[in-house]
Structures are given as structure tokens and as C-alpha cells.
Amino acid sequence: MPNAPEQPQPPVPARRVTVDQDGPVLVEGPVEVTAADGTVARSDRFVVAVCTCRRTRTPPWCDTSHRRRVRNADATTHTPKDTP
């Protein structure tokens, strides 16, 4: 019996990645992240936040630690009040 011709595969939809300058990278899931040491972290969530500030306690996932960091630009724009 002859083999049936291969059916064309439907195109795989592109994953959406959103880069926030002041926060994490948001990636539509499911997601696998491979670290430099070869470990793999997987999330099946609809959208995952991948940490870019390296302050998270749950790498590679963001735990919003970036919200607590102080910006240098903010610190230099404030001037102390003059005392009479």
C-alpha cells in the first residue's frame, strides 16, 4: 500500500513579546526559558513576565522587585527645601 502524501502543516502562530522599559518582558505562554547554566524553567500561563532587572527572588520570572528600586534620575531632580 503506498504511503499517503504528507499533509501541509498549519503555520505556527507567532508569540507576542512585549518589552517594558521599566519592567519585565511579557511573553505569551506557554514559555520555556533556558538559563546560562542549562536549567530550564517552564510556565504554562497565558502570559508570563520574564525578569530583566535581576532583582527577582524567583528567576527567571518577575516578582515585581523592579518596582522598589530607586532611580538615579529621580534622586537628582529633588532639591532640599530652603530653611528660613
Task: Walk me through what this model shows.
The chain is mainly β. It is built from one helix and five strands. The chain has one helix spanning 72-77, and strands at residues 17-19, 25-28, 31-34, 40-43, 47-50. It has a three-stranded antiparallel β-sheet with strand order 1-2-5, with no helix packed on it. The protein has a two-stranded antiparallel sheet with strand order 3-4. The protein is elongated and about 65 Å long.
Task: Describe the protein's topology.
Blueprint: E1 17-19, E2 25-28, E3 31-34, E4 40-43, E5 47-50, H1 72-77
Antiparallel strand pairs: 1-2, 2-5, 3-4
Strand content: 15-25%
Biggest sheet, open or closed, and with what strands and sense?
3 strands, antiparallel
* Main β-sheet, spatial strand arrangement: 1-2-5
- Which structural class should the secondary elements be placed in? mainly beta
Number of strands: 5
Number of helices, where a helix is a run of at least 4 consecutive DSSP H or I residues:
1
Mean pLDDT figure: 80
Instruction: Name the overall outline.
Output: elongated
- Extract low-pLDDT stretches: 74-84
Distance between the termini: 99 Å
Radius of gyration: 22 Å
Task: Give the quaternary arrangement of the chains.
Answer: single chain
Q: Percent of residues in helical segments?
A: under 10%
> What is the ordering of alpha helices and beta strands?
EEEEEH
